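Journal club prep, shared notes

We agreed each person brings one worked example of a sequence with its structure written out as tokens. Mine is Dehydrogenase. I'm keeping it raw so we can talk through how to read the token line rather than staring at a rendered picture. Sequence first:
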Amino acid sequence: MGNLRVGLIGLGMMGRHHARVIREVEGVDLVAVADAFGDPHGVAKELPVLHSVEELIAAGIDMAVAAVPTGMHEEVGLALAAAGIHTLVEKPIAASAPAGQRLVDAFVAKGLVGAVGHIERFNPALQSLRQRIANGELGEVYQIATRRQGPFPARIADVGVVKDLGTHDIDLTAWLAQSRFASIFAQTTTRSGRPHEDMVVASGKLENGIITNHLVNWLSPMKERLTIVTGEKGAFVADTVTADLTFFENGTVATEWESVAAFRGVSEGNVTRLAIAKPEPLRTEHEAFRDAVLGLRTDVVTMAEGQDTLVVAEAVLESSRTGQNVRIAAL
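Then the structure, token by token:
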């Protein structure tokens, strides 16, 4: 069997990284690229730059990556599904929940692999953390808190910070906990003069009882990407910028300073920065997509999971509009 033939549509900031990684991954060949606005980063190299998803399909591809703007995900994804092409679409799955559901249904109906690029799941720090939680190293999990903030990215124009950055935190939280969101309360603000929100604070509860907190914005001069999981044995802190994972252990040595001890629920223990392998998350994501197409593994972020994340993101926006806690409908 020859290599899988891959097509890439969308040659912007994310598209250039997808092109590089596709060329590095074994078992696949990048055979066609497309973008109606050209190739600003010169990623096509020897390939002609096609102008539409129809031209991409005509190139005879087995699988595709759609890195087009969010508002185009539905149109491009439905065309690829109709043509029988396995597709990885960048996150969020679509601009709206109804559009996302149409994509889910289209790929299921054709029996195709449909994946969503929630790349944080493939960050080595979070992959290690997920395994350690499953192994019981934290005991019962009480809370998952995330902080994702930094300057505004000029490439984003069609959605706000909730559907762009916030969907990372919604997805990784549900994945780490292996539980859906049950409810969410959120407040947003818009300070940059753009039409969409650029700052959000959200608190939620998962179906398994874990409580969550998420601080996400495009208004901070420093870049921060932290996930903190607190449980009965201590807390893990994952920094997905550096892919570092640190364990703060609950101690067994009592605090002798009485005025400090009175305010501590647990005593301080050892702090360990764990040694973990650090492969590039985008490469790991592409390898998972390739293997899913080959029927070898199933750890891609499915379109159904991407749709569930989008439903929660829209509940975040609904809560910010109404000032009410929003219940997430059970599956």
